[in-house]
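dumping this here before i forget
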Amino acid sequence: MRLSVRLLAASALALTLVAAPAMAQDAATIGRAETIRDAALNQNIALDYITQLTTRFGPRPAGSKAEQDASAWAADYMRAQGFQNVRIEQFPLVGWERGEESGSIVGARPQRLVLAALGHSPGTNGVIEAEVVRFDSLEALNAAPAGSLAGKIAYVDAGQMVRMQDGSGYGPLTRIRGAGPAAAAAKGAVAFIMRSVGSDEHRMPHTGTTRYVDGVVPLPGFALAAPDADTVSRLIAMGETVRLRLSSTAHTYQTVSQNVIGDIPGRSRPDEIIVLGSHMDSWDLGTGAIDDGAGGAITLAAAKAIRDSGRRPARTVRVVLYGSEEVAQPTDTGNGGGAYLRGIGTAVEQHILAGESDFGADRVYALQLPPGAQGSEFARAAARVLYPIGVLASSTPELSGGADIGPLAASGVPVFGLNQDGTRYFDLHHTADDTLDKIDPAQLSQNVAAWAGLIWLVADSDVDFRAMRTAAEAASAGR
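structure:
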């Protein structure tokens, strides 16, 4: 009986805690969010921004002059759109230049291969020519006997990426790109190659960063375009001994990257900050339209729509165009996201919510709120605003955000996700095909509308996602 009383008391307390921070969204706030949403559907700022960014500056590798120049231009663009407190936050970076690269099958029946060096891989210091040993997984490579790949090229072909709306097929393969070169070096290999991490079958390789181990990337690594990977794998399956000739003049250099920050200051609680994040840098093969010029266009235009609504929100809306999201570093300092966190210091406690747009420009289909917000009055208000433009509420909470806002999430800032349709994203991701023409203006505007409507609800309210999370944790502990 005593235990039942305690459980009932705990349950009552938990229900009170859960309900307390979920402040009602009044009809006027919801109505204004709907008006801002509809206006954002007809804006042209997002398309203007992404058109100018990709056309004026092209690819923007982390730490490059193009990234630096694009950041200076974006700061001026923000000022022209009415953002305040616009500033550039600089931090040191090890940059990487691709240089010239080539690959071919050599022997009696030579064939040219289409490939791309993996980001931050060292050059080949001339030409590497060696026999290929194929593995069908990273685990198989790790299980190879010590020294068994001495003087050879390790090749991992784990098959084509599974096409998924939420992009979940990416993770199982991208870890090969990150860890593969070090695993190959540990077995004595002289180079590493892999099937590109992409959902397409185009003869267009997908690049991407690899990892540093003890301050270095241990050997040259390359991604083969999908058809070329298939060719190498078929030859090996036919019993052929495949020898490749690889060359790369890739190299690293000391440079700086930067975050671009601009605010729509809150009218009554300006110290309470909502961060809308994306990244400025891109890979060098395309022009970084979907990854991630689009994210900057979406978040900047959403904040602009709120500013233009005729009433400033109570809280500050901050747009951050982060630098150097794409690349690994010898020492993990979090790149742009880490630099931002270090720059704000104890003000992180006044950051009440953060979100990141870094999955292209196709439509938003789901909203993930921080833990504890599911089923709250705020969630119901958000659903009312977003459902008419095709965005459904998810029962799964958002926990970590993306690479740029990850440091904020790790420091306790609640994060949300406006999940985009990624069905075709990994056809284009990190390739020469990541260009402006791949952006659908109508879907781009739907993203802006979703961000603008949602952020208004947060910014002009006293909803406390930290308290919601604490209440949900207390409720769970009391069960």
